[in-house]
Amino acid sequence: MPKLTYNSITYTCPENQTVLDVLHAHDVPVPSSCHSGVCQTCLMQAVKGTPPEAAQKGLKDTLKAQNYFLACCCHPDADLEVALPNSGTARSKATVKSIDRLCNDIVGVSLICEQPLDYKAGQFINLFKDNTLARSYSLASVPAQDNHLELHVRKVPEGRMSSWIHHKLKSGDTVEISLPVGDCFYTPGRPEQSMLLIGTGSGLAPLYGIARDAIAQGHTGPISLYHGSTTVEGLYLMNELRQLAEIHGNFNYIPCVSDEPVTDQSIRDGQVLDVALADNAKLTGSRVFLCGNPNMVKAAKKKTFLIGASMKDIYSDAFVPAN
Amino acid sequence: MNQTLFQKLGGEAAVDAAVDIFYRKVLSDDRISGFFDDVDMEKQAAKQKAFLTMAFGGTNNYTGMDLRRGHAHLVKRGLNDSHFDAVVEDLAATLKELNVANEHIAEVAALCETTRKDILGK
Question: Best of B26, B38, B42 to disrupt the A interface by mutation (most A CBs within 10 Å)?
């Protein structure tokens, strides 16, 4: 059995266990969240030995070249000595600029990075509370327009990370963040294409970034953003989005509320996906962005594909529940 | 590999053109769509592409054993000849939509036929 060394202590790796399993079994605190190779929270570096290729899937080439790997997908085939990522290479420091209440259970967190971060609106970063706890948050900011990073954090019932952000974190604090991850973002080209953006809750964050990024990059086709909430109160950034729609003729904002009666004529009644599909019977040639509740994202992927969106034009970022 | 058929059909570009149409047909086909309820769509689309490349006579790395192993859990759920026929039918309809000549469609169907026993675990 291959040997795994971390912090000068050596463990054996049983065949069916990942590096993360082995370290957690010995109470070594390694931050992790999705346990399925998506969120990259459990990023580690092999300082001796080479991680298997399967454990590097989805990593940036620069990280691969430095033997970074995902502990949750790493079944070592030879001895490895591993370390948590260094500050400066895979992680960087940021200062909290402000924390603003956006609605009842969502706050906006603005961060100023020590080093400029090369990212695209709609990607996500992992925010570290300490060396053992981290969660992924999408970027609502647009690099060319905003000099800070903006995250929307929903208070998860009994969520350790979101409780800390909502109740303890304050402006002036320093935090560590990962490099940006993910491929749910706007790419230039085909500016006349229709864009359909559907999100629930704080899944608005990446969509808000993507829509403004597309507009800033000169997208001329119609951009329709459907934001779903169970309550009217949960429709945050309404004024900003309405203003955006007033300024840009090709941008359309459609707020939807599913679980309470709506009196405001400009708010649509129903599940956001149903409303969006009722308005868009055919999506041939459209670009689709889906963010938020995993069940909605999964259903929306299939439904938008079946009515004509090409698989390569469907981008999604579902919340991955912490494990 | 049947290079002539693959070239006649238009190579990789033809596979790209066919994959969305074919996968859409499969997902909308009540006879077989149930088998795809819980799959990850991106991963499945990549598999559909590999399958189409094989069916078009292109290079593929499938062995009979891979096909057996890959479909064993579906055979347990009742995958049988009628479902296999439905997939071949959806593929033929896809090619028709792309204006592929009938004789080439027949060649593709014949290539699919060579995998039937492995896929159904017979």
Answer: B42
